[in-house]
Design brief:
By secondary structure, this protein is an alpha/beta fold. The protein contains 12 helices and 10 strands. Helix 4 packs across helix 5, helix 6 packs across helix 8 and helix 7 packs across helix 8. It is globular.
Length: about 425
């Protein structure tokens, strides 16, 4: 009898857990823009020929794709799809060109916005009355989807085509702003607009900002804006202090190396460092992308001890050794550190990588990131300036670049607050 009672209690606990889990999935704290639009019975799209810029991250909380939702809605005439980096279906790896094609699930034409053409041409936009954008972003400037969004807005403005952004959470929250704004000539597809590295806006808020302040890449605030007719369908329930895990929404990786919502936080910590050719491994070829700084020449315990001596707020480090699956270090044991964010508000995410580089320069002066023949890749472009490289490489002290890195944050915080849709 006792065994039966124990079994019954365990079964009840399991059933309760399943019920609670189902309830969490069924009723997240935040409702994404696509679901708000559906609740409106797609009224803003009725009678219009609709184009859609999206990828696998465009889903409702039941993981039904925005493509499926709009294609199957009798009220919506979806006529074309547009693929950003990695493609509409996410089947193109990082850096690979997306090609024009036909979507096998819907039979709709798919136009590439990552390859020779990044701004849609008039030919691509023929027959479109309204362009809908629905992609989950990471909250960092150098992630290419916001550049795609802006170029789509620019192209549509020239042709009088409406643009609708279905809003989604900023996984870094809406309060964190870090890094200097982009300077010419370093504006590019990984730093298209004059905004900080961490800009603290949702896609919809950012769309409103660049629409009002200026759509000309690298010229935000310096010349009259080229506006499109823009509608943002806001989320319900999102608050500025939420990181992605707080929303209750499922995370669908928007690109291959951002597998979880919290990965976006570490992407902000290590992205530029990862662009320095053959310097350090940041976990791209391992199970924890952007969550590690490692190399064959690093003693993990020594590097952790050096970083501990800095007493950085909101972050601690643990030593780690692992074998990358691919790349120049594939199959070799390399050492380094894995950062853990312990106080999100206190941590300066984007500066973590500079302290790691400082510590490595102190410990390993024969392995400096910016040697005379070093290929720095996209480092200057993702930083939005060459000042960081030029100044940092003189002494490898974060204090030498810190004021410059932070110089634009207060002004942008004031400017961007005008476009907040959420408290």
């Amino acid at each position: 009898m006792r065994i039966r009672r124990i079994f019954a209690v365990c079964l009840a606990i399991l059933m309760l857990g399943a019920f609670l889990s189902a309830d969490i999935i069924a009723a997240p704290k935040v409702k994404a823009g696509i679901e708000v639009l559906r609740d409106m019975n797609f009224e803003p799209l009725k009678g219009k020929r609709v184009g859609l810029v999206t990828n696998p991250s465009g889903v409702d909380h039941n993981l039904r794709s925005t493509i499926e939702i709009l294609h199957n809605a009798p009220e919506v005439n979806l006529v074309a799809l547009y693929g950003p980096e990695h493609g509409v279906r996410g089947d193109v790896y990082a850096g690979g060109h997306v090609t024009d094609s036909v979507d096998p699930a819907t039979g709709l034409p798919v136009y590439s916005l990552y390859g020779p053409t990044r701004k849609p041409t008039a030919k691509m936009l023929e027959g479109i009355d309204i362009m809908v954008y629905d992609i989950q972003d990471t909250g960092t400037r150098y992630y290419t989807f916001i550049s795609t969004m802006g170029l789509v807005m620019e192209a549509c403005s020239a042709l009088g085509i409406e643009v609708m952004v279905l809003d989604r959470p900023n996984p870094l929250g809406g309060n964190k702003i870090e890094g200097c704004v982009v300077e010419q000539p370093f504006n590019s597809f990984v730093s298209q607009y004059k905004i900080p590295v961490i800009y603290g806006l949702t896609p919809g808020e950012l769309a409103n900002l660049i629409n009002e302040e200026g759509l000309n890449r690298g010229q935000l605030g310096n010349q009259a804006p080229v506006k499109c007719k823009l509608t943002v369908i806001p989320m319900e329930g999102w608050k500025r202090d939420m990181v992605y895990e707080d929303t209750g929404l499922p995370w669908v990786l928007p690109s291959p190396n951002i597998p979880y919502g919290y990965t976006a936080i570490y992407y902000a910590c290590s992205g530029p460092c990862g662009e320095i050719y053959n310097y350090m491994q940041v976990g791209i070829s391992y199970t924890i992308p952007f969550q590690v700084f490692a190399a064959a020449w690093i003693d993990a315990d020594k590097l952790r001890a050096k970083l501990d001596s800095y007493n950085l707020p909101g972050v601690v480090f643990r030593p780690i050794y692992y074998k990358p699956f691919a790349g120049s270090q594939a199959g070799k044991v390399i050492g380094g550190v894995q950062p853990y964010i312990t106080d999100y508000d206190a941590c300066r995410l984007s500066e973590v990588q500079f302290y790691v580089m400082q510590a490595c320069a102190e410990l390993y002066p024969d392995h400096l990131p910016f040697g005379p023949n070093e290929k720095i890749g996209l480092f200057n472009k993702v930083c939005g300036t060459d000042y960081i490289k030029k100044t940092f490489s003189q002494r490898y002290r974060v204090e030498d670049i810190q004021d410059y890195w932070r110089k634009d944050e207060d002004a942008f915080r004031k400017l961007s607050a005008k476009y907040h849709l959420y408290r």
